[in-house]
């Protein structure tokens, strides 16, 4: 393989006809410069210089190779400068996907104007996909506010924790009045759950078992959906799991529209992440987005 470093040494020797001068200018030994030339000649299987007593003279092939090397090195330098410039320049199109409109409105929308002022050359596409995300088919740069399932399905993804919360169990007062309030985990099996269509199984409720580990309950499930779980619970159609500390849930509790159920058995380990594709270094546009919006975490209305 030909290395640009060897090409530069070759061109300098070709210009001066003297390895000693090049070695002195590069703070190297003559032997080191000689090895670089020999490396090129070995890869090319061609002599580059005719060695005389007083100087090195380019062979016919060497003269042609020098011209092509100079053109290559010029383009190579432009490419390096382009990379260095764009390492910190945030441009292009950033594609972000969320799994609900509420998340977009509560974690992104209030600060988008400020973000775009910081990065005026960056285009942003924000999509909402309430079904399960398939990284292979869904062409996005950032998968924003997604549960642990995505990292389990695609362990190669990088992620940042956005928030963790107790995973509460809730129902409307009307539902509990009609069906009774569960007193134990076993009681949950006698109730109805509003299922998440893409869970496996779709009728699962996550709770904390007596051993403080995650415990999975599978009540009857008449309705499965990918959106509107909270609204359906308020309408009295069943129990739901939901992050307990969100503004929306807390407001509904204060308004008497939802009631906490079996609070001593809420699973404490619910986490939500921002996932992104691995690269070294992280793409400038992805790094800028994550640094900016994660820093706004304390201001989110969650």
Could you characterize what this model shows?
The chain has helices spanning 4-16, 19-26, 30-44, 60-88, 101-107, 109-118, 149-153, 173-179, 185-188, 229-234, 247-254, 284-294, and strands spanning 49-51, 56-58, 92-98, 122-128, 142-146, 158-171, 192-196, 205-208, 214-217, 220-225, 240-243, 259-260, 267-276. The protein is an alpha/beta fold and 302 residues long. Strands 3, 4, 5, 6, 11, 12 and 13 form a seven-stranded mixed sheet that branches. Strands 1-2 form a two-stranded antiparallel ribbon. Strands 7-10 form a two-stranded parallel ribbon. β1 (49-51) and β2 form a beta hairpin. It is elongated and about 105 Å long. The model has no long low-confidence stretch (mean pLDDT 89).
- The number of helical elements comes to 12
Percent of residues in beta strands?
A: 15-25%
* Overall 3D shape: elongated
Q: Given the helix and strand composition, which structural class is it?
A: alpha/beta
Taking pLDDT < 50 over at least 5 consecutive residues as the criterion, the unreliable ranges are none
How many E strands?
Answer: 13
The overall average pLDDT, rounded, is 89
Helical content class: 40-55%
Order of helices and strands: HHHEEHEHHEEHEHHEEEEHEHEEH
**Separation of termini?**
55 Å
Largest sheet: 7 strands, mixed
Q: What Rg do the Cα atoms give? A: 31 Å
What's the assembly state of these chains?
A: single chain
């Amino acid at each position: 393989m030909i290395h640009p470093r060897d090409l530069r040494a070759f061109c300098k020797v070709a210009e001066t006809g003297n390895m000693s001068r090049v070695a002195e200018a590069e703070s190297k030994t003559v032997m080191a410069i000689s090895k670089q030339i020999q490396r090129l000649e070995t890869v090319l299987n061609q002599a580059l210089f005719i060695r005389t007593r007083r100087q090195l003279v380019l062979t016919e092939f060497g003269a042609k190779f020098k011209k092509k090397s100079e053109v290559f090195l010029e383009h190579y330098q432009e490419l390096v400068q382009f990379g260095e410039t764009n390492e910190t320049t945030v441009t292009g199109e950033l594609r972000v996907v969320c799994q609900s409109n509420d998340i977009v409105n509560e974690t992104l929308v209030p600060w988008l104007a400020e973000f775009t002022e910081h990065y005026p050359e960056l285009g942003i596409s924000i999509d909402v996909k309430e079904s399960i995300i398939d990284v292979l088919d869904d062409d996005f740069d950032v998968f924003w506010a997604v549960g642990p399932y995505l990292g389990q399905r695609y362990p190669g993804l990088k992620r940042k924790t956005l928030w963790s919360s107790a995973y509460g169990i809730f129902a409307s007062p009307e539902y509990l009045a009609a069906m009774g309030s569960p007193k134990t985990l076993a009681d949950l099996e006698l109730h109805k759950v509003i299922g998440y269509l893409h869970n496996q199984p779709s009728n699962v409720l996550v709770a904390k078992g007596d051993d403080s580990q995650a415990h999975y309950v599978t009540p009857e499930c008449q309705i499965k959906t990918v959106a509107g779980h909270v609204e359906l619970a308020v309408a009295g159609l069943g129990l739901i799991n939901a992050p307990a500390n969100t503004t929306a849930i807390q407001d509904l509790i204060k308004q008497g529209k939802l009631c906490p159920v079996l609070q001593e058995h809420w699973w404490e380990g619910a986490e939500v992440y921002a996932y992104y594709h691995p690269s070294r270094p992280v793409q400038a546009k992805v790094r800028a987005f994550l640094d900016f919006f994660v820093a706004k975490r304390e201001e989110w209305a969650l």
